[in-house]
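Fold it.
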Amino acid sequence: MACSLRSRPPRSGSAYPRMRRFSAATRRVATVSGCIAFSWPMGVQNQVVDSASIEVNRRQRRAKSDGLDAVKLVEMLIRWHNGERKVWKLVRVPSVAEEDQRQLHRELIELKAERTAVSNSIKGLLATLGLVVIVDETLPKQLENIRQWDGAKLPPSLHQRLLREFARWQLINRQIDDRERERSAKIRDDKTPQIQKVRRLMNLKGLGQNGAWLLVYEFFGWRQFKNRRELGSLAGLTPTPYDSGESRREHISKAGNRRVRWMMMELAWGWLRYQPASELSRWYQRRFAQGNTRLRKVGIVALARKLLVALWKYVEGGEEPRGAVMVGWENKRGYKGVKARQKKAS
């Protein structure tokens, strides 16, 4: 969580009664939404807090100011310092290097979304004339040969606009190819601990470089998890039941890493297809396969959470998912013959 701190000296008197306990040690208090920093004689100790975990008054109209926020944060800090660990949720902030390692796959996700948007724009412009094309490298030739219902060519202004959109599509496509080649080269040649974890995940059938890379650099490559509950919570896949009176419902929290949550949904469907004999797939078939569409969707969320825990145990402890088929990362497309070439070079 990135935050900028606005500093102010602590006040004395009845406005800040709880701060008297820290008056002897506190030099300056800096607060912003979700962040608090105290300056002690020995140095500065920062506590970065999830702003959504800070308890607030539920009245529609409530008093709010920087001073009131500072008092609230100090009161909660005192409770946390006295051992009340559930008063708020601390944020584990990645280092600059750890955050920088995430840029490659995040850029790829954004570029692919932009390419899809440009492709849809081209198709939408042609749909106004009742025409359909396939957006690929042959698009300029398709535009020259395509005809409207009466045999007329494309209007000249529309034709030029489509060519400009195609130029954007080509630029984005080249950038995607460059980033994917860079990623493949790292998987093939690097010997860092993160790349070793990527290769280990790619040994599983049905798990490619997109999923393995994202899981490692978003989760397994820098974050240490204490248990499966912490893992599922960070992915936003934990259930949040609501049972009050006659209202009974349950959803997932969706409070964690959205990229990991999205990828785990995709991997869960792929796991059913490529690992049908695994214990996780058989569990899904017994519990949800015979249900309706809604029940199957609920089941795939549960499978995604279980699969994430299984992959975590496999990456960190070497415990293979039960019944899973291993194919070896070097046998997948783009990496065949890597070990043979490495042995020959050595």
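The beta strands are 6-8, 29-32, 35-40, 43-48, 239-244, 247-252.
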